Fold Peptide/nickel transport system ATP-binding protein.
Amino acid sequence: NVLIDVKNLKKYFNTKGGTLHAVDDISFQVKKGETLGLVGESGCGKSTTGRAILRLHEPTSGQVIYKGEDIVKYNNKQMKEMRKKMQIVFQDPYSSLNPRLSVFELIADPLYVNKGVVPKNQIEERVKHTMELVGLEKRLINSYPHELDGGRRQRVGIARALVLNPEFIVLDEPVSALDVSIQSQILNLLDELQEKLGLTYIFVAHNLSVVKHISDRIAVMYLGNIVELTEYNKIFEDP
Ligand code: ADP
Ligand code: ADP
């Protein structure tokens, strides 16, 4: 029941100070339908791990086996196809959304980039359906990001990630930039969507309290490595 099998994944960056082992050597599996929380202090490599799995950062070495196939070996065309199934929601919905695009254009964008997934004459319907899924009011369809509050902007970010019907989503600190009062709304939404759509998540957070309710298992990272990987409820048990 494993959806993703990450084997000896490494991501090094060349910096002025030398080679930085942002992801030193990590292996773990993500089961279909689960949420794996990826936690650890800022700079330990969580975000790089999430991006390397999607090849938004090219892994230095290692394998990312998705349903039995190593997608690190995929060429651009195969990867473009794969990206429909693997999406990401970014931390700051403001800086990750193009301010010149309307809500409609932002959510429809992945459909235009991936031509043929949804026939042109059904794009509007798909966008409206996705807005409804994420709880965005219909009247906002022609609004722009600056006209929305943080929670609604993040709903647009989530809608972009959902519009192609993915199986797997990396949530990269999806509530960290939001007001505390809105965080629980977005967490509840993510939980509901997972249930309804059968999604698998990697949930990146620097704060354990954010992921504790939603995660089935937690991986703790430290300096580019996973130092603990356990069922959520075991993490607080005495050894
Ligand atoms: P986290 O998500 O846990 O805060 P990151 O994965 O963002 O950590 O970063 C891990 C390490 O890699 C940090 O030291 C960070 O500065 C470095 N890093 C991240 N992205 C780059 C990059 N594009 N170029 C160079 N170093 C990077
Ligand atoms: P930039 O601002 O440099 O374009 P982004 O972080 O927006 O960088 O995107 C980096 C890469 O991630 C790009 O190749 C882009 O196509 C891809 N990308 C952007 N949004 C998503 C998403 N929701 N799911 C999967 N890939 C995405």
Remarks:
- The CA atoms of residues 103 and 141 lie 5 Å apart.
- DSSP finds eight helices and ten strands in the chain.
